[in-house]
């Protein structure tokens, strides 16, 4: 299974008072087709269908403050977290719990201190292309959503997994990808994919005698007979 990845968005988090409870926190965990900042060698965007399978399958999704298990705010299984896809992106609404974390988040949101949202996911399918400027661009086509979260720190965390996806696509390691210029990566990505298996590629690198050892032995016997 793919490693967990985190992405943020800097759209405002909204707080609404409710008749019962501590209120509701809302925001967009992801916005579709918006180009990210440089993620350490590539940029990224989210396809509008990326969350369809998670929502259709009704898989369990959490809302956690700063992605921390100690600050659980709601769950789809408990009905305290709802998710919706619209023309902008993936929107979440969570009914804040009457816990220390819920009260803290409520106060921070009311004061305007809590201004970012994020989502944690595992990639199911992605694609690689280039921006008009020739920079590697990853498109998330299908992801397994793990959680949505209001966060304090808007920084992207650990994008090595994204680079590893590109490395796998190019049959390279991550260090090679980091050391390769964008224009060279572009040439590699535009090269038609090699449909051969690893075994077939290995055989191609071998000489004919290595592929057919019996033929090599037969040739040696013929050479001995010709000398006799």
Question: What does this protein structure show overall?
Answer:
The mean pLDDT is 83. The protein contains eight helices and ten strands. By secondary structure, it is of the alpha+beta class. A hairpin with a 7-residue loop joins strand 5 and strand 6. Strands 1, 4, 5, 6, 9 and 10 form a six-stranded mixed sheet that branches. A four-stranded antiparallel sheet has the order 2-3-8-7, covered by helices on one side. The radius of gyration is 26 Å and the shape is elongated. Helix content is 31%, strand content 31%.
In short:
The protein has eight helices and ten strands. The protein is an alpha+beta fold and 228 residues long.
Kindly name the structural category. alpha+beta
Strand % is: 25-35%
Shape: elongated
What is the share of helical residues?
25-40%
User: How confident is the prediction overall: mean pLDDT?
Assistant: 83
Number of strands: 10
Topology pattern, helix = H, strand = E? EEEEHEEEEHEEHHHHHH
Measured between the Cα atoms of the first and last residue, the distance is: 63 Å
For the largest beta-sheet, the strand count, sense and barrel status come to: 6 strands, mixed
Low-confidence stretches: none
Number of helices: 8
Gyration radius, in Å: 26 Å
């Amino acid at each position: 299974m793919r490693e967990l990845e985190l992405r943020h968005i800097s759209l405002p988090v909204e707080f609404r008072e409710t008749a019962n409870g501590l209120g509701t926190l809302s925001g967009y965990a992801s916005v579709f087709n918006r180009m990210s900042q440089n993620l350490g060698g590539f940029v990224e965007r989210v396809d509008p269908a990326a969350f369809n399978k998670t929502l259709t399958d009704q898989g369990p999704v959490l809302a956690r403050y700063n992605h921390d298990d100690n600050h659980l705010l709601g769950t789809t299984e408990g009905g305290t977290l709802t998710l919706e896809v619209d023309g902008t992106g993936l929107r979440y609404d969570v009914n804040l719990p009457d816990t220390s974390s819920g009260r803290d988040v409520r106060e921070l949101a009311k004061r305007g201190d809590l201004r970012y949202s994020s989502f944690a996911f595992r990639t199911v399918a992605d694609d690689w292309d280039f921006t008009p400027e020739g920079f590697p661009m990853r498109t998330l086509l299908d992801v397994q959503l793990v959680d949505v979260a209001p966060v304090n720190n808007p920084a992207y965390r650990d994008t090595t997994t994204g680079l590893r996806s590109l490395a796998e696509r190019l049959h390279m390691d991550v260090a090679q990808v980091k050391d390769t210029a964008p224009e060279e990566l572009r040439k590699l990505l535009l090269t038609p994919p090699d449909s051969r298996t690893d075994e077939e590629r290995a055989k191609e690198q071998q000489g004919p005698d290595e592929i057919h050892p019996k033929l090599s032995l037969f040739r040696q016997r013929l050479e001995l007979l010709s000398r006799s």
